[in-house]
């Protein structure tokens, strides 16, 4: 793969990465333009590659897939003219760990297939936890896979279905998969949206003029001027067409919702709405809870930009300690240093972040960040703050310790690479070399997310497996490889 197509922040390797964003629209002129705008708003969910499929009654299905950012690939008049039609879907992605390289292009979604009743395209956010088992079974029965993506299993299952139409075939296919998924698919005249029974990954419905839109987040509806209608419910499938509007189906057995709580912490854009709540307000509440749980005498509260900013504001408001931009982000960092020399590579975080020296010198600094994964970036930021003359550095983390990998569509390191899986909080403090280190409690995170009584241990409101080790959907493939969950899903 060409270096020109690497993610925009090649040194930002110490964050959990949501792997995908999906978007679809029907009933609008030049649908591809709306899809490109929607994907641009969802770029934070996947910066490695993107694709768009449309349908026009004169030219049929049209598709374009590219490595890199939406703004660099889906803005030219010639590109958009190659994607005509009033209906389209799109996808942005990060690849999962270990799949980057020469084969990446074949994994770029949406995937397209021809069926007896016509063509269909599908874009998937999440992870199928029994994909390996399904793939083996399908290959033994004669299926030929073109990609390494678990999403392709859905296409093959649909091909083998005896359903009378595409939505029926998708229902039958999805009943055979396990895991977390939000799906946007399309036929010649319909877009289809579906969430897994637990609703782990997000999907929302919007109205634009006489047309309709589906998106991973409400911020993608805002950019096209669509009205937010509602969230697609856990386990719901909607089939949308110009002629019949929105038709709702519930193909799965009812289950208690377990939405991913890390969407509140980091993945979603702060200007999105999740579960009827502003993501920004939730993150500010997280900061307030953190200030109550882990106070410390200091002079300034500083965010690690940009993801730590709302929580830092909340911490400052609750504690009364002034908020300040002690670290400044270089907004244009990225492709300038795609092939850095070794000396530049060793600069690491300094390419992206710079300390406001005049502000932090001699001060006791509280640094608020969203998470600690490997700890490599946290150590470098601490060193930068101390080099700038800070008297003390106190880390406050807006999520509990990340001690377990995610198998539901988040690119997480193996457990032995997660700092919190191998160290106590005090050991992590010493490893990072800071004066103090405190994480918000899981109960505190739940309270900030709208659960006034904290986490109900018998029936949690969210998926929090990365913190608790309790997996609401059995990670079938990983267990087959020897992984042992703390608590096995039923």
What does this structure look like?
This protein is an alpha+beta fold and 490 residues long. The chain has two domains: 3-257, Glutamine Phosphoribosylpyrophosphate, subunit 1, domain 1 (4-Layer Sandwich), CATH 3.60.20; 278-480, 3-Layer(aba) Sandwich (Rossmann fold), CATH 3.40.50.2020. Helices cover 27% and strands 25% of the residues. The chain is built from 18 helices and 25 strands. The strands form seven sheets. A seven-stranded antiparallel beta sheet has the order 4-3-5-2-11-10-12. Helix 9 packs across helix 16. Mean pLDDT is 90; it is low at 1-12, 97-103 and 334-342.
Number of helices: 18
CATH topology of the largest domain: Glutamine Phosphoribosylpyrophosphate, subunit 1, domain 1
Number of individual domains: 2
CATH class label of the largest domain:
Alpha Beta
The counted number of beta strands is: 25
User: What structural category characterises the helix and strand content?
Assistant: alpha+beta
**Can you say what the CATH homologous superfamily of the largest domain is?**
Aminohydrolase, N-terminal nucleophile (Ntn) domain
Largest sheet geometry: 7 strands, antiparallel
Unreliable stretches covering 5 or more consecutive residues: 1-12, 97-103, 334-342
Oligomer: single chain
> Radius of gyration, rounded?
23 Å
CATH-level-2 architecture of the largest domain: 4-Layer Sandwich
Overall pLDDT metric: 90
């Amino acid at each position: 793969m060409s270096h020109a197509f690497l993610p925009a922040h090649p040194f930002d390797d110490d964050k959990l990465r949501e792997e995908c964003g999906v978007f679809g629209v029907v009933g609008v002129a030049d649908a591809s333009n709306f899809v490109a705008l929607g994907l641009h708003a969802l770029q934070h969910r996947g910066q490695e590659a993107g694709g768009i499929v449309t349908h026009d009654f004169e030219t049929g299905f049209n598709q374009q897939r590219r490595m890199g950012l939406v703004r660099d690939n889906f803005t030219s008049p010639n590109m958009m003219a190659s994607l005509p039609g009033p209906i389209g879907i799109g996808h942005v992605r990060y690849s999962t760990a270990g799949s980057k390289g020469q084969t990446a292009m074949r994994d770029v979604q949406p995937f397209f297939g021809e069926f007896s009743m016509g063509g269909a395209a599908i874009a998937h956010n999440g992870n199928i936890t029994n994909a390996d088992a399904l793939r083996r079974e399908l290959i033994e029965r004669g299926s030929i896979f073109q990609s390494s993506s678990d999403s392709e299993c859905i296409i093959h299952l649909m091909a083998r279905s005896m359903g009378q139409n595409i939505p029926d075939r998708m229902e039958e296919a999805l009943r055979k998969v396990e895991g977390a998924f939000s799906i946007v698919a399309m036929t010649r005249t319909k877009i289809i949206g579906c969430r897994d029974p637990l609703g782990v990954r997000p999907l929302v419905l919007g109205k634009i003029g006489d047309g309709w839109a589906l998106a991973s987040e409400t911020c993608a509806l805002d950019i096209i001027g669509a009205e937010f209608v509602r969230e697609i419910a856990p386990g719901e499938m909607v089939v949308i067409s110009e002629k019949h509007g929105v038709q709702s189906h519930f193909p799965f057995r009812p289950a208690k919702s377990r939405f991913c709580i890390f969407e509140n912490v980091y993945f979603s854009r702060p200007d999105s709405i999740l579960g009827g709540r502003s993501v920004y307000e939730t993150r500010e509440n997280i900061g307030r809870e953190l200030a109550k749980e882990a106070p410390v005498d200091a002079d300034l509260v500083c965010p690690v930009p940009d993801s730590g900013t709302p929580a830092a504001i909340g911490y400052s408001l609750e504690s009364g300690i002034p908020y300040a931009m002690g670290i400044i982000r270089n907004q244009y960092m990225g492709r300038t240093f795609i092939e850095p020399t070794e000396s530049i590579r060793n600069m690491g975080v300094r390419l992206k972040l710079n300390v406001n020296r005049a502000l932090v010198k001699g001060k006791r600094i509280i640094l608020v960040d969203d998470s600690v994964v490997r700890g490599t970036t946290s150590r470098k930021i601490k060193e930068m703050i101390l080099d700038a003359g800070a008297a003390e550095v106190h880390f406050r983390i807006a999520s509990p310790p990340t001690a377990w990998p995610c198998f539901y569509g988040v690119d997480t390191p193996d457990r032995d690479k997660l700092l919190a899986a191998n160290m106590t909080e005090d050991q992590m403090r010493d490893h990072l070399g800071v004066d103090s280190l405190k994480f918000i409690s899981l109960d505190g995170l739940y309270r900030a997310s709208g659960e006034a009584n904290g986490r109900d241990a018998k029936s949690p409101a969210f998926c929090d497996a990365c913190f608790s080790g309790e997996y609401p959907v059995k990670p079938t493939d990983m267990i087959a490889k020897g992984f042992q969950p703390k608590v096995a899903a039923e």
